[in-house]
Design a protein that fits this description.
single chain; mainly alpha
Length: 199
């Protein structure tokens, strides 16, 4: 029993905690390696070394580098519903506060942004996430359906710009802003992108 407990985890073998820990180590190493080396230069062998496991374990869980990359940057932004009458009027603040919560509590999104600014695969994945998750929220309140893609892109420009300066580049004045100050500055802009009838 003790010998089997110390061996590599096998899916479905009754070692879910060890399996989860192994997956977590692989994904953390993969995010760091993809962000540092880019998708093309990152290798399964290097990621496995960073995670202190055998490369075969990476292949067992994720099949290949493409599968590993998809898992490493998978994220649900869990954007709030802003379609209610009261929430429509305060949608900008709601989204800004939600994004701040997400950036500060989910290292995956920070890693994805780092990957996105260094290679095409990461940029495309970020585009997919914003298209699949931000567009529907924008559509809930935008007065002109044809403007939804442009308005969502403008919202992304504000939120990703904030994340880049505050969490990636760590520019001191951006770090020094309190959450209340950020919301006070950005919420009206996001609200205008969402609900203004025209520029």
């Amino acid at each position: 029993m003790n010998g089997s407990a110390s061996s590599s985890p096998v899916p479905g073998s009754g070692t879910p905690r060890r399996s989860d820990a192994t997956r977590g180590a692989i994904l953390a190493a993969a995010r760091e390696r993809f962000a540092t080396d880019g998708y093309e230069r990152a290798t399964i062998r290097a990621i496995a070394k960073d995670a202190n496991i055998d490369p075969s374990m990476v292949m067992r869980y994720y099949g290949n580098k493409e599968g590993l990359f998809a898992a490493a940057v998978a994220i649900d932004l869990q954007l709030p519903d802003v379609s209610g009458a009261d929430r429509r009027q305060d949608a900008g603040r709601i989204l800004v506060e939600h994004f701040l919560d997400t950036w500060e509590n989910n290292e995956v999104l920070t890693a994805l942004l780092r990957v996105g600014v260094t290679n095409q695969a990461g940029a495309e994945r970020m585009q997919d996430i914003l298209r699949e998750q931000l567009l529907p929220v924008t559509q809930q309140v935008c007065p002109d359906p044809e403007q939804v893609p442009a308005r969502a892109a403008l919202i992304a420009s504000q939120m990703l710009g904030l994340a880049l300066t505050r969490y990636i580049l760590q520019i001191p004045p951006a770090i020094g802003l309190t959450r209340a100050q950020i919301a006070a500055w950005l919420a009206p802009t996001i609200q205008r992108y969402l609900t203004a009838s025209s520029p």
